[in-house]
Design brief:
The protein is an alpha+beta fold. The protein has a single domain, classed as Trna Endonuclease, Chain: A, domain 1, CATH 3.40.1350. Helices cover 40% and strands 28% of the residues. It contains four helices and seven strands. The strands form two sheets. A five-stranded mixed beta sheet has the order 1-4-5-6-7, with helices on both faces. It has a two-stranded antiparallel sheet with strand order 2-3. Helix 2 crosses helix 3. The longest helix has 18 residues. The relative contact order is 0.19.
């Protein structure tokens, strides 16, 4: 269980550090798209490899569906980030990151909420 809790530890710290930097710089109150753009800049500045809005295919019984998922980021080719700008997380937000992880085959995801005040809110999700 301990290995599962600490997968991608160093990468996670770097990602969260970039998120904290964005929040410290602009605070809460902006739209999600603003945070996504700021975070992309911060990832570039800090040398964090990422893909913005990657397409995740969904399959059913080996058939590719027309529906797709698009998380906000995949960092280090392994860690999914879903950004929110809401007063607090809801159950459907956590379900969303679980679905992204299931569709992608990745094991680690983060829900990052820039809308919480007075500090950023995040959840680490491991499957």
């Amino acid at each position: 269980m301990k290995d599962k809790e600490f997968i991608f530890k160093d990468e996670s710290y770097k990602i969260l550090g970039a998120c904290f930097e964005v929040y410290n710089e602009i605070g809460s109150g902006f739209l999600e798209a603003v945070y996504q753009e700021c975070l992309a800049i911060e990832f570039k500045k800090q040398g964090i490899p990422f893909t913005s809005k990657p397409v995740l295919d969904i399959t059913y019984k080996n058939f590719k569906l027309e529906q797709i998922y698009q998380p906000d980021f995949i960092c280090y080719k392994e860690i999914i980030l879903e950004l929110k700008a809401v007063s607090k997380f809801r159950e459907e937000h956590k379900a969303q990151i679980f679905n992204y992880l299931k569709a992608s085959g990745k094991r680690l995801g983060f829900l990052i909420n820039f809308g919480n005040h007075p500090k950023i809110e995040y959840q680490r999700v491991i499957v």
